[in-house]
Amino acid sequence: MGQDQTKQQIEKGLQLYQSNQTEKALQVWMKVLEKSSDLVGRFRVLGCLVTAHSEMGRYKEMLKFAVVQIDTARELEDADFLLESYLNLARSNEKLCEFHKTISYCKTCLGLPGTRAGAQLGGQVSLSMGNAFLGLSVFQKALESFEKALRYAHNNDDTMLECRVCCSLGSFYAQVKDYEKALFFPCKAAELVNDYGKGWSLKYRAMSQYHMAVAYRLLGHLGSAMECCEESMKIALQHGDRPLQALCLLCFADIHRSRGDLELSQLKLHCLSESIYRSKGLQRELRAHVVRFHECVEETELYCGLCGESIGERNSRLQALPCSHIFHLRCLQNSGTRSCPNCRRSSMKPGFV
User: Fold this and answer.
1) Whether 352 contacts 151, CB under 8 Å
2) β-pair partners for 327
3) Which one of 55, 82, 161, 346 is least enclosed by Cβ atoms within 10 Å?
4) For the chain, what is the radius of gyration of the CA atoms?
5) Which DSSP string do the residues of 311-327 spell out, in sequence order?
6) Average pLDDT score over residue span 332-342
């Protein structure tokens, strides 16, 4: 199979995939891999297979094709192809929750000389790195990475990247329990979809609706949460996006639990553990539980540098500075300081996030 025929078959597979004939598209692309002698074409079809298996939730297969793509890029001896394949390898490990590997591959991407990382793919690399740091609960580095990704998006007018970063920031602020920001960012993503999304895949709308559903639930707006989650699930079912379907099912369960549809819905693990230890008079276990909690707070730097209280125990408004240190908004407003209390940077102007 020559170069022209390879290109035609790749396009045929894309048309099938976009019309939700996923298995037929995969068959076409696999035949290209078996028969094509065109290295560039093989590289492209491997990228299609990586994306398709990612959206189907087949992450081990995604990783397998990413590894083959790395080998193909090395045969081509092209730095840009190598960068793209390392990014796919990072994303594959991110999906498999191998976050340390994700960060390592992202750093490899950023260190490759003579590539287009600074202009086109750098934002995507920073986003993947931010998601990995968030998975490891390294919150400041996650925020720094998301900040970089947003700057890439704004500087290059990349609205698709901005949409994805806003959804990740929604997850970030949901974890640190600033629920207003957890809602703001996916709402911003939804606005981008509405403004620019006529030619976009519906997956961006589904993604933003899911993150809005999570934030609405956390804020107690259960009707809005259900509406957004239903919209996201409808698109996920239509396009066979199994990972998003699973997330929507979990969100539905949380909404029903918040409504009191399930017995013991209001109990939280932390409160339950503490009450058990106290009722049994197990002071050693109680003390160990409290100490470990505060150790985790110190390890992740998840506390306000002004009042010293931990962030994430309750819903509170937060402010991130350009240095990516996080404080209670009320503490910054009351302090009157003109520099970051943690690192003493002079600028107090908020960053993008």
Assistant:
1) yes
2) 319
3) 346
4) 23
5) SSSS---EEE-TT--EE
6) 79
